[in-house]
Design goal:
Blueprint lengths: L1 E5 L6 H11 L4 E6 L19 E4 L15 E4 L6 H6 L1 H21 L4 E7 L22 H17 L5 E7 L1 E3 L10 H12 L1 E4 L6 E6 H13 L7 E6 L5 E3 H11 L4 E4 L15 H6 L9 H14 L14 H10 L21 E3 L2
Parallel strand pairs: 1-2, 1-4, 2-3, 4-5, 5-6, 6-10, 7-9, 8-12
Antiparallel strand pairs: 3-13, 9-11
Helix pairs in contact: 1-6, 3-4, 5-7, 5-9, 7-9
Amino acid sequence: MKILITGNMGYVGPVVAKRLRRVFPHARLVGVDSGLFAHCLTDSVFPETVLDEQIFADVRDLESDVFKGVDVVIHLAAVSNDPMGSRFEQVTEEINQNATIRVARLAAENDVKRFIFASSCSMYGYAEGGARTETDELNPLTAYARSKVGAEIGLQTVSAHGNMVITALRFATACGFSGRTRLDLVLNDFVASALNAGRISVLSDGTPWRPLIHVEDMARAVEWAIVRSPDHGRFLAINAGSEEWNYQVHELAEAVQQSMPGVDVHINKNAQPDKRSYRVDFSLYRDLAPDHQPRIMLKEAIENLRDGLTAASFDSPPDRPASLVRFNVLGMHLEQGRLSPDLRWTTTLTPNKPEISVAAE
């Protein structure tokens, strides 16, 4: 089996690749990434050592030959959060939506059997009342969320022509330690602030709801999507997570405080209401994927982050490294002239052509 992972050099990719190597030891694993965050390491081991090949390419530039002989495409490549989506709105649509649909079409044309798309629960936006199911109305409030909705619509069209099985995993908000940990995620940010400053500042009034999922459980969901029965639908959009991980923001801060005594929590009770608030129903995922349910709960996730960041000496510097906040990384690339405004490399120092690749020994 040959598995192609786009966006593998981000936050989720290293954990997915590691799990796939363990679960499918004889599979040929190939990564495709432009390398924007390749240097943002939080582990002593280079994550791509588990791959058979690494292709350096912008996902917008991929051609048909990249997909020849591929059985599974795991599409993680994306402009990955709301602040970046706000600053790079057009690029977010180009990469997260248009490139996703194009990649899926190329995959289908080359007889790829499975296409797994990293979608997002953020498309529920603001939802009063009960937890959102897959059939509830979507309410995307940001460029990032809108791009995920647009991508899913396009993928449904692709699935209507051909035999490729497509799974859109609507992930809850990611958390946990990775070989390229991000701190621009709510729980990761709280643990990092507790370590670095002994204080957590909640910018909202703490009441918004967020569903979360540990990055290792995201990898477990990807594994399920590779092996799931096509009887569940040739195209399936499914909430990936657990009801136990629906938390209000203040509960997350207080949980970090309990696990890390002495940390001060400040909640801005006078803040303007945060419109992004939603709970999510994960019962369909529980029913269809009983053997791939999330296993890591909140306390363990906090300890996992605390120990991983401490081992990476994050608690030593007076300021958190800019490389662990993706928006800052892009800003530095742009300021130093390495990136153009459309987030393409401007130098020849980092290859961005699909035919350039590095094969693992």
